[in-house]
Write a structure and sequence with these properties.
126 residues; alpha+beta; 2 domains; three-stranded antiparallel beta sheet; 3 helices; elongated
Length: 126
């Protein structure tokens, strides 16, 4: 064997849970892991080769809060039509939409905590 590293697809819930437990014990919470990194028969990492992430822009003065309700409902519908019940919404804390997203925490949105000190915040639609 050339290396003691293996990249293994995550094909079942038990293996996914094992990956999440290994990452959690190391203080991390990877998103949408599709593959695990195995070193010396131990899970030491994970990555995602596909990510249901919504990259978005809204005009800072021409879209109001009422508009954003319709826009986000439409986004939910589109993502559900594409079979994504959960997806990521990046948002910078200085964005005028940051308060809109934080107001939805606990009502379908959670904030990804990451490792701290991040410039961008990730919101997870669940």
């Amino acid at each position: 064997m050339i290396t003691n590293l293996q990249i293994v697809p995550i094909n079942d819930q038990k293996f996914f849970n094992d990956v999440m437990e290994a990452s959690s014990s190391n203080g991390h919470e990877p998103l949408y892991s599709t593959h695990a990194v195995i070193k010396d028969k131990e899970i030491v990492g994970a990555f995602c080769t596909i990510s249901p992430t919504v990259y978005w822009w809204m005009h800072s003065t021409k879209v109001n809060n009422r508009d954003s309700i319709v826009i986000f409902q439409s986004l939910d519908t589109l993502m559900n039509q594409n079979k994504y019940e959960s997806y990521v919404l990046p948002c910078h804390p200085k964005s005028s939409y940051y308060p809109v997203l934080t107001s939805r925490l606990g009502r379908g949105l959670t904030e990804y905590k990451g490792d701290g000190g991040d410039d961008w915040k990730l919101f997870i639609r669940e």
